[in-house]
Amino acid sequence: MDNKFEIRAWQASARELVAVAAGREPASLVLRGVKWVNVQSREILPGQDLAIAAGRFAYCGSDASHCIGESTEVVDCDGLYAVPGFCDGHMHVESGMLTPARFAEAVIPHGTTTMFVDPHEIANVLGLHGVRLMHDEAIIQPVNMFVQMPSCAPSAPGLETPGAEITPVDVEEAMRWPGIVGLGEMMNFDGVAAGNPQLLAEIGSAQIAGKTVGGHYASPDLGLSFHAYLAAGPADDHEGTREIDAISRVRRGMRAMMRLGSAWYDVESQIKAVTERGIDPRNFILCTDDCHSGTLVDDGHMNRVIKHAINCGCDPLIAIQMATINTATHFGMERELGSIAPGRRADVVLTSDLSELPVLQVYARGIKIADRGELLVQTPRIAWPESARKSVKIGRPLAADDFRVQSPPGAKTVRARVIGVIENQAPTRALVEDLEVADGAVQGDASRDVCYLALVDRHRASGKIVNGFVGGFGYQGEMAIASTVAHDSHHMVVVGTDRENMALAANRLAETDGGVSVWRSGREIAQVRLPYAGLMSDRPAEQVATEAKMMNAAISACGCSLNNAFMQHSLLALAVIPELRISDMGLVDVTHFELTGLFVED
Amino acid sequence: MDNKFEIRAWQASARELVAVAAGREPASLVLRGVKWVNVQSREILPGQDLAIAAGRFAYCGSDASHCIGESTEVVDCDGLYAVPGFCDGHMHVESGMLTPARFAEAVIPHGTTTMFVDPHEIANVLGLHGVRLMHDEAIIQPVNMFVQMPSCAPSAPGLETPGAEITPVDVEEAMRWPGIVGLGEMMNFDGVAAGNPQLLAEIGSAQIAGKTVGGHYASPDLGLSFHAYLAAGPADDHEGTREIDAISRVRRGMRAMMRLGSAWYDVESQIKAVTERGIDPRNFILCTDDCHSGTLVDDGHMNRVIKHAINCGCDPLIAIQMATINTATHFGMERELGSIAPGRRADVVLTSDLSELPVLQVYARGIKIADRGELLVQTPRIAWPESARKSVKIGRPLAADDFRVQSPPGAKTVRARVIGVIENQAPTRALVEDLEVADGAVQGDASRDVCYLALVDRHRASGKIVNGFVGGFGYQGEMAIASTVAHDSHHMVVVGTDRENMALAANRLAETDGGVSVWRSGREIAQVRLPYAGLMSDRPAEQVATEAKMMNAAISACGCSLNNAFMQHSLLALAVIPELRISDMGLVDVTHFELTGLFVED
Which residue of B lies nearest to A60 if distances are taken between CA atoms? Predict the structure, then answer.
């Protein structure tokens, strides 16, 4: 095989595995003297040897001497714990602003060897082609990066136009790709509960293919809508936040994915179902959902989530099961990965402590790929086509006047709808403000914290711009910030106190193929460069994290004191969460799922 | 649908399930006020309602009023426990001497709603065609009867000629049949550990098809052979008898199936791994392997096994998990059956007590099929072809002289190898006895408990007979017993004190298309009629059990006091268990896996 990380199916290596286990052929690697963290039996077994061949465990037991030949690498593990490589049950690579190769590079030293990835963001920009690019880069990684086919693009049909749409035909096609493990989170839970045939067809395609249907029931309502959603077939859900959410799902055969992401803290409340109520833990799974580069660099990945679960009072072995065998079983891969057992992929984390989980060495498919935080391999990348690296198409250079809101003829003030950002929350408020008119244009008002807001079509080069107003950022002075990360349609969203700076920021992102650009007084003061679909970078996580930190500092320097100003910015077009959002079709009243006007009619 | 028990896939019923759960359409059935035995969470939830549509659960929760319409049947369950229908993880229908339809009929009133069936015996008689017949009758049952493709026919290649052979090509073909869930128990564990390419190919075919590979490692040796077998891929094993057997398997990711059959008692020792050692129970599964009709009629089926596990100290909820969700998960069917949860097949046992498990009502796919032990439906049967009902072909009527063993010229006595039956054990002893010669024929000797033994080719009408001697039955007087149930090649095996009676018994079975016939002093004193492949009857279990009891009484009347004389008889040709057996090729020295002569050479 050209790629030493390429792994053959168990049956294609069975002859070799049997021969090694029987002592007729030498293993490629033997880890001697480990404490075998056995997630199958939930035991710790000291003094064990693990013999590996063809990237898989061939023998796991008390003495692998018979598997050792001249060609065998023997590693004395001196009593370290051997833990199965960690699995992330649900996550979006794009949240790290990194390509799959760079994401893998960032998380491998933290012990992650398996990820179940939903490329929902790129699907909104590039459609099936974008999913295929993520898939193709994912399957060549030295660790296991499985892809779920996104189910919902657009997220808000009829209220927005993303760069591309995913159809049931796309879903059916993707189910035949080698690295597709299921359907990505089915977010349109209202549509599913209403029996929308297109959504049920997408779910059905995944079920017919024998693959796992990801759920996303983002509501605290556990009434009929919840039960109807369950009956449609989603097999897991990561949107629970309360103990009762986890319990209600697990009782009904839907696995509870508990997330600790950069901005998600849903493990502590839900894990009480296991630690306090004694519910069978087999159906609980840990995941991250969304991790920023900074979190990956500073805090870790699944090792952070497992540690957190342990700190919440969970037995370490059970917490590890929740990020290894439980995940593997959920995706029908229990015989392929998620435990240290014969035939499984030889993905191992060596650690000296089961509570703190220091990740000393990481093996994937029997090859050491990280040592004390240092990555020992290059994560391979595909050649991304220009269509993916030149995705920001605004049609023409923009000018300040493109962001001008024309007032009704003769008006001196207008009553305008203003999106009100709420600190630490994803929902917004639908505010109404009386705004001044000058030279026929409605004016923002920094003194009352009302900024200009614009959504610039960046997918079709139409030159179309939708203007509005937003409050809550606290921006002061002449500034603007533009971003091509703008969930879920990922157009370009621009916020500013000044139209000149807005045009400068927007034009800069068009030149640099996307990302985030912050301007003050006619000068760019920070930029995060994300030229891959306008969402991701192929530079190392450290560099992206540094740029993101500088961006946050620049935002603060412009007077904003929100905890997660960029996240709030990037959600201004998320037309599925109430109350008021902006889209390429206008302002969206998400409470009523309809378009609404900028001006309040008397 | 013509067959009211036919069940569509979840996705084909999703619209209806969602509508019922949401309260837009009525359920077909609502079970009100149950104690929901929740094997997903391992809880008992009182005061719950279960709404069913399209044969599946649509809603499971505290109040199903919204699912009830004019057409809904509502059953007030008055606080009874609702338990998922019981699953048998590994079993042979032929052991009950019943066709699949008759077997289902016998076990449904005991609460069994799912069986994983390995038609290994018929495969040895009729090959792939026989497996297909079992498969075709299994898939039309009102309960779930899944078939595993037998992996090993002949069981002892090179040492016997069964009626048909199973090849890797057969296995590959069967993997495409709708009711095939995996490969049947891979019994040739020595061959697997030796890396036999044909056996590995069969395992690979099942793995490529995404199906489960059944194991059968029938040895107490947990050394290299065991580890080599594990590395080849069998996913379960029911041959463990000791606690260490179960633990060794589970630690290495092979599920431990613990059996309580008519003659297997392997739960009590192995379940200590869970009850005393605290090992995670998720990988333990209960099964029967082999149940005689009498056991089914008198003692029950999986209800008996679960009760036994509880009596061994297992928590009732965990014991029930071992016969429901654990089994379903093992076969990749957790989203299809094995729990009471939305979307799953509505297979329910109603019981008043979780320890004694009285089976009050049984529902399958939402239809009540048994009530207090009474079956409410007919189990459908296929039209079995004549080839399957006329399978006993001995070529010509036999005479006493066909069972004559010619002595070496001039000998007055000979030293002969004699198969020595051992009470309550499957292995035999390789005895050597000095036997008299009269008229040039070697004589049996009832006074020393040495009987005549013959294997009559009943598959190819060749007229071939292999003669020998057997000790240990204690038969007296002029008698003979013949059986076409003769594991694993299922030729006809005849034992007797008298050659005339042997010929009579053999000829009778040829006339009646197989079964067991007992003769004394020229009269038939008992017969079990098994015309389906010479192995099974399509009469009710009660009738077959009665005939079997009369057969046992007849055997006793002939002077035999063994506990399981018929089982010992039926294993005389089992050329895979030491020490000495008979086959159509001669005497088999199973210790050395080679043919041997009847006479000991000096």
Answer: B252
